[in-house]
């Protein structure tokens, strides 16, 4: 009895997660027939049952949103995809063990940069996640990561940068030259889990100094 | 940096970040070898952070002894890279265990009923599985133990 190799039907089944938005993605055969369909199941590590993801049964696209199904931060998860082509051949592949705490990447923060005459104020807005507390409140990244802090840089010129860092959300770079353009970059850092967001950047010009001298 | 663990009246500092970093390098390949995904040894009902503070030191001390005596000693690494990483992890946990033993010596690591009960449950999960499979599974669950310590 010769079992047919169907591994080409399905590759790279993995979670892509950012700010706790957990998307399962996979690849099919490069020239996979349009009639290839995919079905997704998921399970909690340590439990027996595989659960079918509603809305991702016999689909043709190669991704499925499992954010709600994998939203418990203290749990670890697996997901698997079964691909079936028009000739009835099928293949099933599973992800690695997934922990959204460990695996999620962090998006740039949302920041308002406010120019003044001799300073620039930066206000970092909270980043809400799909994760909800038991009381139903949506959690922010700050709620989830106790050691989260913001790292800010202001490029003064080619050789000189100012740095600020802290857990608060309001920062101000002071002692700047009026009517001058500066480039600010703001990142979220989570030291314990070696996470760092890509930077939010704002180009800002300080106001002209209209005081009579 | 260093993290201070407050386990009841036992206070120790540990490089949890460094241990986590070391484990994250081998996590996927170690966990991929664990084929029994219906079973979990370190379960939420026995978590360190869910244990009353006075019993946390004893519970962690026993879990670390389990890892050092019956996991790291019996683990057969597939290659030299993993061997080196696992050895470093073992040494880090050994350092923590020594600190906990100091607390024990100073009477600040009591073993109450809760610690004994939770550890015996963990041990029974551990002993339900075949020897070589349980070693691989326990090693793959180090991220759970590190998260428990993080949240303790």
Automatic annotation (TrEMBL), chain B:
Annotated Gene Ontology cellular components are:
extracellular space
Which keywords annotate this record?
A: Cytokine, Disulfide bond, Secreted, Signal
Q: Name its cellular compartments.
A: Secreted
Note the InterPro entries from the entry.
4_helix_cytokine-like_core, IL-10/19/20/24/26, IL-10_CS, IL-24
Query: In its keyword annotation, does this UniProt entry include Secreted?
Result: yes
Q: One Pfam family of this protein, by short name?
A: IL10
Q: Which GO terms describe its molecular function?
A: cytokine activity; interleukin-20 receptor binding; interleukin-22 receptor binding
Describe the task this protein carries out: Immune regulatory cytokine.
Q: What is this protein called?
A: Interleukin family protein
Which organism does this record belong to?
A: Bos indicus x Bos taurus (Hybrid cattle)
Organism lineage reads as: Eukaryota, Metazoa, Chordata, Craniata, Vertebrata
Q: What gene, per UniProt, encodes this protein?
A: IL20
């Amino acid at each position: 009895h010769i079992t047919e190799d169907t591994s080409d039907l399905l590759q790279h089944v993995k979670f892509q997660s950012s700010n706790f938005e957990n998307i399962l993605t996979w690849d099919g055969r490069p020239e996979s027939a349009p009639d290839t369909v995919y079905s997704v199941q998921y399970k909690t590590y340590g439990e027996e049952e595989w659960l079918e993801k509603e809305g991702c049964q016999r689909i043709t696209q190669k991704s499925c949103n499992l954010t709600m199904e994998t939203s418990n931060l203290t749990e670890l998860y697996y997901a698997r995809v079964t691909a079936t082509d028009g000739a009835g051949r099928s293949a099933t592949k599973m992800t690695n063990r997934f922990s959204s705490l460990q695996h999620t990447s962090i998006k740039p923060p949302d920041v308002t940069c406010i120019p003044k005459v001799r300073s620039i104020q930066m206000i970092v807005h909270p980043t809400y996640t799909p994760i909800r507390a038991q009381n139903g409140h949506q959690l922010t990244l700050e709620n989830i990561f106790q050691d989260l802090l913001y790292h800010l840089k202001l490029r003064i010129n080619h050789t000189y940068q100012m740095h600020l860092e802290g857990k608060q959300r309001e920062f101000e770079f002071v002692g700047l030259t009026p009517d001058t353009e500066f480039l600010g970059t703001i990142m979220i850092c989570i030291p314990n889990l070696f996470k760092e967001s890509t930077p939010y950047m704002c180009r800002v010009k300080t106001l002209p100094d209209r005081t009579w001298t | 940096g260093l993290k201070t663990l407050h386990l009841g009246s036992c206070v120790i500092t540990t490089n949890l970040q460094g241990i986590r970093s070391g484990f994250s390098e081998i996590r996927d390949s170690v966990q991929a070898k664990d084929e029994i995904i219906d079973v979990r040894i370190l379960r939420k009902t026995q978590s360190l952070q869910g244990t009353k503070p006075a019993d946390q030191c004893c519970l962690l001390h026993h879990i670390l002894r389990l890892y050092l005596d019956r996991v790291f000693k019996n683990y057969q690494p597939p290659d030299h890279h993993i061997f080196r990483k696992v050895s470093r992890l073992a040494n880090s946990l050994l350092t923590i265990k020594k600190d906990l033993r100091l607390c024990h010596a100073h009477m600040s690591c009591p073993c109450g009923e809760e610690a004994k009960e939770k550890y015996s449950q963990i041990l029974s999960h551990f002993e339900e599985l075949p020897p070589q499979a349980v070693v691989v599974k326990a090693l793959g669950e180090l991220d759970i133990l590190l998260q428990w310590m993080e949240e303790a």
